[in-house]
Design a protein that fits this description.
With about 400 residues, this protein is mostly beta strands. It has helices at about 1-15, 20-25, 205-210, 215-225, 245-250, and strands at about 35-45, 50-55, 60, 65-80, 85-95, 100-110, 120-135, 140-145, 145-155, 160-165, 170-175, 180-185, 190-200, 230-240, 260-270, 275-290, 295-310, 320-335, 340-360, 365-375, 380, 390, 395-405. A hairpin with a 5-residue loop joins strand 11 (about 170-175) and strand 12. It is flat and about 80 Å long.
């Protein structure tokens, strides 16, 4: 969390009052605005079911309790107040049911743009992880795509929200022992209330853009190659495991599979202005654990990735990019089952791909906000069973702060 705190402090230092895109029009400097806040959420236990063995060793049906959580929200409004992208990270969970909701990455559409002193409805969807553990069984992690809806009220640079969500995929199978499977139904409905602070970082540059001064300065510095330079990046990231492991299915099907992990990402790069090309060395380190009954498995990944990506467009400051990546991977598996220990590892080079986008109202800024999506296939670790544990991951770095140290002076 230290890297996240540093990023937020730098952003706050550059922030001003909320953007007035209603009065100012649909310009590139008013296209997007960062938001930071929190919410409280309750997943309702009504219509949930699970089973357990009673003292007579018979199946007993029961209902799960309500589950409460507080979450950190990082995101941004886009398309001049018509869209809201966000990531919600749980910082506290309260429940006795074994159920909790993990990281949520969501999108909301507002038919009427956000406006001061006005209530606006939204509808959206999300990519959400749900976790359920019963007794000393596995933590069952599944990804959901719920429907969300609610209302947003804007006052100055403050957003107040109430919302609800419905998950259409609440039924799962769960091992209540190493051999017995039951059908469960987890929490399908939730309610939330939240607050977000709107942070403006770009509208101050609008006058220079409209007067033509930005273009003159950009062209002058570009001829002198002063817009080339080193970059530093930091931000929270997440990885989603995309393939089930053959080894786990063979030795411990009741333990499930690795699903998601959250970690910090760091980058050191160099940017060339004229070709609009960035080369970066990115470092990530993550860990995931499975534990159920007599089985425990820990997988670790360290990745040193060299990536080169070309920016391929600019829509009102929304600048997408794509490019190849090559990564030195250090992968390891440590497993214990019935007191027997097993290990496996892989060290080597793997190819991948990087895509994403910058919020870039002009090309003179000291820092930008960037989103990375990466995919590296065939991250397999061979085990003593002749099967492998798959660490294939789809990486999603929702917001990275990218700073040009040379432009500070």
């Amino acid at each position: 969390m230290k890297s996240l705190h540093l990023a937020l402090l730098i952003l706050f230092a550059y922030s001003s009052q909320s953007q007035t895109y209603i009065e100012g029009g649909k310009t590139r400097h008013r296209f997007a605005q960062m938001t930071v806040g929190f919410d409280s959420k309750v997943n309702l236990g009504a219509n949930t079911t699970s089973f357990r063995l009673n003292n007579s060793n018979e199946l007993e049906k029961f209902q799960l309790d309500d589950q409460y959580s507080s979450r950190l929200i990082i995101g941004g409004t886009h398309f001049w107040g018509h869209a809201d992208f966000y990531i919600a990270i749980p910082i506290a969970n309260w429940n006795n049911s074994g159920f909790d909701a993990g990281v949520e990455t969501g999108f909301r559409y507002l038919p009427w743009q956000i406006k001061h002193n006005t209530i606006r409805p939204f509808i959206g969807t999300a990519f959400l992880s749900h976790n359920y553990q019963q007794g000393n069984g596995a933590t069952l992690t599944r990804f959901k795509y719920p429907l969300t809806a609610g209302l947003i009220y804007n006052k100055g640079n403050h957003l107040f929200e109430i919302g609800a969500g419905y998950n259409f995929q609440s039924k799962e199978k769960y091992y209540i022992s190493t051999s017995q499977i039951v059908n469960i139904s987890t929490h399908p409905v939730w309610l939330s209330v939240g607050y977000k602070w709107m942070i403006e970082t770009t509208v101050s540059a609008e006058k220079d853009w409209e007067s033509g001064r930005t273009k003159v300065v950009t062209d002058t510095l570009a001829r002198r190659k002063k817009l080339n330079g080193f970059t530093l990046g930091v931000g929270p990231s997440s990885a989603f495991y995309t393939i089930t492991s053959e080894h786990n299915a063979l030795v411990a099907p009741y333990a499930d599979n690795h699903k998601v992990t959250v970690y910090a990402e760091f980058g050191l790069g160099y940017y060339w202005h004229k070709p609009d090309l960035h080369v970066q060395l990115a470092y990530r380190q993550n860990k995931s654990e499975l534990e159920a009954y007599d089985f425990k498995q820990t997988v670790r990944r360290k990745a040193f990735t060299l990536e080169a990506y070309k920016f391929i467009g600019d829509y009102h400051g929304f600048a997408p990019f794509i490019g190849p990546a090559i990564s030195y991977e250090q992968l390891s598996v440590n497993q214990t089952q019935a007191n027997a220990k097993t290990t496996g590892d892989f060290n080597g080079i793997k190819p991948g791909i990087t895509v994403g986008w910058d919020i870039r109202p002009n090309r003179l800024q000291v820092f930008y906000l960037r989103t990375h999506l990466r995919y590296f296939p065939n991250l397999n670790v061979a085990m003593n069973t002749g099967k492998s544990v798959s660490l294939d991951q789809f990486e999603f770095n929702f917001i990275e702060l990218v700073v040009f140290p040379g432009r500070l002076f």
